[in-house]
Sequence to fold (306 residues):
Amino acid sequence: MSNLRFITMSAALALTLVAGGICLAETRPDLKSYLPRCLLIVRCKTEVKETADDYLYDYKVVEVLKGEYSPQKMEGEPPAGYLYRTQTQTKKAQSKPIDGQERIFFFSDNGLSLGKLFRHDDAIPLKDGKMNWALGREPFDVAELYSVAELKKLIAEVAKEPKVQTSKLQAPKVKCTAVKEADGHISASFEVTNPNAVPLPYVGYTSDSFEGGLKEGTIAPIYGIELKQKEKWDKHSVGFCGTGIGPVTLPARSKVTFGVALPLADWDAAKVGLSWWDSAADETKAVVAWSGEISRKEVEKANSPQ
Fold:
């Protein structure tokens, strides 16, 4: 993507994802090798209502095939029994949601940030009770069909296979190096250190997602922000484009940098978190490495006339 576009993370983001999520349809891997990465696989049924100008639709969870479904584990916390909050599609669009259509939704670490699933990798429709894992992948006349029962059997088989044991990774160090007020926000620079002798997986965008690639030594993580006011910390909502997310890693024993736009809103302190993965720990949960507190008074002091 030539320019990173920001949208509200939650149901609005999900509107753009059903057609292909992270576009696995173009580069869909071998299913058996992909399943271990899946944190959640669910079968959902589409529920559609109409207004004069729009279609309103929801994905009702019919069956959990892998992982644990909980509204509290989904970004935006949808109503119980549903995957996302109600979504809207204009009737002027070329396609429309189909009431009663069932889909298999696949979620992996690509769509996990700060412990919440905010996007799926793929949503494959069921036709005559079967999904086509090869759908959208060349050659187009080749099918790789799985019934729900066959998919559940494959998931169970993969779960029984022994996992490769790896040593526990040390957490990355996140440090704020500079802050500056500009253009209606506070621009903050951060340095991330990977103390490990091996690459460290984190949640973010790939370099080739940007025109010309990222500058050497910089990364574009899916970061989180928390703000403190009157001794209480609250999560600050951040929106990200759904295109170009991971998998990505921090090089072994390296230091990289990234930038964050902090709000000008009234806060006493702020901190920024980077979601990373330790394959030796619980593979279903990302770990958040937080920076130290950034004092608003220090920000004001740094930007006051000398």
